[in-house]
């Protein structure tokens, strides 16, 4: 298990990084009884549970799809708590936010960046799952998910409901 554990690192000017782990899996399970984990507002490097690849975005172009990348800087996201355990997840360049495209509620819905308008499709719950975390969209109840579990640079992220597969 240690070999597959990856972390979200608190990115700051401090020499020591505050660490939280995140589980980004294909077909995430969203158990009804799970309570949201409240993390401190701040910048976090989001990495995959099973690789060194990151959830990446340039944060500059509206409707840009979120992809798997190698660039650690492009994988740093700002989490801003909105209350009720939901967060605004702001893209690396602090211009756009993580967004479930057009509030669509189907498996495979694209996860994009878009200017903040405050809709439920731009609000994400952080759910603790053992030593990792999941991101669940408020509008769709779908998890941030790697399309086809293809772990190579450029693979896009989607919203997807529960499934037993990692």
Tell me what the structure shows.
Helices cover 0% and strands 36% of the residues. The protein has strands at 7-10, 19-21, 42-45, 54-56, 67-69, 76-83, 86-90, 97-100, 109-114, 124-129, 132-137, 143-146, 157-160. Mean pLDDT is 78; it is low at 1-36.
What's the quick description here?
The chain has no helices and 13 strands. With 166 residues, it is mainly beta.
Draw up the topology in text:
Elements: E1 7-10, E2 19-21, E3 42-45, E4 54-56, E5 67-69, E6 76-83, E7 86-90, E8 97-100, E9 109-114, E10 124-129, E11 132-137, E12 143-146, E13 157-160
Antiparallel strand pairs: 1-2, 1-3, 3-6, 4-5, 6-7, 7-10, 8-9, 9-13, 10-11, 12-13
Give keywords.
166 residues, mainly beta, 7-stranded antiparallel beta sheet, 4-stranded antiparallel beta sheet, disordered N terminus
End-to-end gap: 13 Å
Q: What is the average of the pLDDT values? A: 78
| H/E series | EEEEEEEEEEEEE
Give the strand tally.
Answer: 13
Number of helices: 0
Shape: globular
Q: Outline the biggest β-sheet.
A: 7 strands, antiparallel
Q: Which strand order spans the largest sheet, edge to edge or round the barrel? A: 2-1-3-6-7-10-11
Structural class by sheet pairing and helices: mainly beta
Uncertain runs: 1-36
- Radius of gyration, in angstroms, nearest whole number: 14 Å
Share in β-strands: 35-45%
Classify the helix fraction into a percent range. Answer: under 10%
């Amino acid at each position: 298990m240690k070999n597959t554990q990856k972390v979200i690192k608190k990115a700051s000017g401090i020499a020591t990084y505050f660490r939280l782990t995140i589980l980004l899996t294909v077909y995430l399970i969203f158990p009804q009884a799970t309570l949201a984990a409240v993390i401190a507002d701040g910048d976090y490097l989001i990495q995959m549970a099973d690789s060194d690849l990151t959830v990446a975005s340039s944060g500059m172009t509206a409707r840009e799809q979120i992809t798997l990348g190698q660039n650690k800087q492009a994988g740093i996201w700002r989490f801003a708590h909105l209350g009720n355990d939901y967060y605004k997840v702001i893209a690396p360049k602090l211009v756009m936010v993580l967004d479930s495209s057009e509030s669509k509620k189907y498996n495979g819905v694209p996860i994009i960046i878009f200017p903040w308008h405050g809709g439920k499709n731009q609000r994400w719950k952080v759910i603790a799952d053992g030593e990792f975390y999941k991101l669940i969209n408020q509008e769709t109840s779908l998890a941030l998910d790697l399309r086809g579990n293809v772990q190579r640079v450029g693979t896009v992220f989607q919203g997807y409901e529960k499934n037993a597969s990692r």
